[in-house]
Each structure stands twice: as structure tokens, then as C-alpha cells.
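Researcher: We plan to redesign the surface later, but first we want a full-length starting point. C-alpha cells attached.
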């Protein structure tokens, strides 16, 4: 066994001692004599060298990292026209590598076309007050039943105290909502007596008119009936 281990550690193959009846090729396992034969008396207890004397580690020149000198290092990439730059002046050729603010940002921002006015609502007319009024059970429709309303009928309701508008084919009485509208009465009156779907959506598409005005529903917008129809 000892000779087997020694050959494994040192890497030097131990020449098998061929015996007449055992072919050399079959000697893959330690020889039977290792278990307690003649080798036990001459057991080798010497500690093998580590790394092995003929190992690749020992063969390597040195594993200490080599400190490269400046001349041995890869040179940095050339900086185009950096040296010839005048501070504060943009050069077209070095526009991509320049640290200057792009010229496009020096233009003043264009003014918004329309200014949205903030409207101060009267006390007691906050969105919460409107929600409370809606759920109070007070009649906000002003009509007994829901109706089919053609544009000609809608047109007749365009005064502040009797204002209707159509949004997505639903006709609402907007009179009670006028003092609660965050955009102001004047803006809301622009859709009185007509289809306000487009103006409403272009102003605040995120507002849920159906929810805001559900208790103000008076009917549904229908196409104008032709004069010939009965
Ligand atoms: C007809 C039903 C309408 C309802 C239920 C309604 C409802 C509302 C609501 C809830 C807000 C507040 C939105 C928010 O804070 O984000 C608002 C704001 C506003 N609405 Fe309306 N609106 C209506 C129609 C209109 C119309 C027809 C116009 C203008 C033509 C208009 C102009 C505005 C404006 C300018 C604001 C902004 C107010 C601000 O920024 O403080 N609204 N509206």
C-alpha cells in the first residue's frame, strides 16, 4: 500500500513487479502484499513533499504578481480635440464628446397654449360637499322620468338655472353642479345646451362624469327625428 501511495503522491510510477501468473495489465489495485505482507516491516512513514517535487506548481517560475511598469501598460484612448478646446465654446467636431450643455436646451421652453385657471370654490362647495349632496337624496334631476332627448330639446336648456349637457350620450342637469365644479361655473357653462363630450374629454379625460353626475341624469341623447317621421 505504501508504495502505491508513494507513487500517487510523487507521480513517479512504480514499476510493477511482474509475476509469472499475474499479467501486468491487471495490476490496477494495490498489490495484495500491502495489507500486511513483507512491506509492513519496511513501512515508509516519511511525509511526501507537497507540492510534489515534479508538480506543475513547482515547475512554474513564480506566482508572485508582476507589477507592470507604465510603459508596459496599454495606453489610454486618444481624446479627440480635447486639448484644442476653448472652455465655454462648443466645437461641432467634438459635439459628442463635449461636456457642454447641448445647444437645444439653451432655447427657452415654449409657453403652454392655454392656461388653466384655478377657481376658488365658495365655502361648502368642495368635492366632498358635492358627494354629500349627491347621497343626501335631494332631487338633482328636476325631471320625473328619464327621457329621450334630441339635440333641439337639449338646446333649450342652456341657462344657468336650467342647464343640461350631454356627455357620452347621457344628458345631465348640470345646474346643481355649477357651484361645485372645480374648473368654475363659466367653464362648465360652455357645454350647456349641447353635446359636451369632446370638450369634457379634452379638458379632463380622467374625470368620471358618470359617477360625478349620476344623480343628475335626465335622459339619453338621441338623433334629431326627421320632420317626416310620425
Ligand atoms: C360636464 C361635466 C363636468 C364635470 C363633471 C367636471 C368635473 C370636474 C372635476 C371633478 C374637476 C377636478 C379635476 C381634478 O382635480 O383633477 C374638474 C376640473 C376642471 N374642469 Fe371640469 N367638469 C365638467 C365639465 C367641464 C367642462 C365642459 C370644462 C371646460 C370646458 C371643464 C373645465 C375644467 C377645468 C379647467 C378644470 C381644472 C380646475 C383645476 O385645475 O383646478 N370642466 N372638472
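Model: Full-length starting sequence:
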Amino acid at each position: 500500500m505504501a508504495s502505491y501511495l508513494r507513487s500517487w503522491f510523487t507521480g513517479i510510477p512504480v514499476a510493477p513487479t511482474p509475476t509469472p501468473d499475474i499479467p501486468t495489465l491487471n495490476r490496477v489495485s494495490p498489490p495484495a502484499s500491502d495489507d500486511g505482507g513483507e512491506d509492513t516491516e519496511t513501512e515508509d512513514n516519511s511525509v511526501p513533499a507537497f507540492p510534489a517535487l515534479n508538480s506543475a506548481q513547482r515547475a512554474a517560475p513564480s506566482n508572485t504578481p508582476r507589477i507592470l511598469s507604465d510603459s508596459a501598460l496599454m495606453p489610454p484612448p486618444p481624446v479627440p480635440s480635447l486639448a484644442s478646446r476653448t472652455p465655454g465654446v462648443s466645437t461641432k467636431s467634438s459635439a459628442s464628446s463635449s461636456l457642454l450643455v447641448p445647444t437645444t436646451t439653451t432655447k427657452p421652453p415654449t409657453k403652454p397654449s392655454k392656461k388653466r385657471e384655478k377657481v376658488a370654490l365658495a365655502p361648502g362647495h368642495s368635492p366632498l360637499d358635492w358627494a354629500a349632496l349627491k347621497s343626501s337624496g335631494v332631487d338633482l334631476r328636476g325631471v320625473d322620468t328619464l327621457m329621450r332627448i334630441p339635440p333641439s330639446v337639449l338646446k333649450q336648456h342652456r341657462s344657468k338655472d336650467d342647464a343640461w349637457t350631454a356627455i357620452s350620450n347621457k344628458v345631465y342637469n348640470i345646474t346643481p353642479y355649477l357651484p361645485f365644479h372645480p374648473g368654475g361655473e363659466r367653464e362648465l357653462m360652455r357645454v350647456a345646451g349641447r353635446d359636451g363630450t369632446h370638450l369634457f374629454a379634452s379638458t379632463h379625460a380622467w374625470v368620471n362624469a358618470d359617477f360625478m353626475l349620476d344623480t343628475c341624469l335626465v335622459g339619453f341623447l338621441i338623433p334629431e327625428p326627421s320632420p317626416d317621421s310620425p
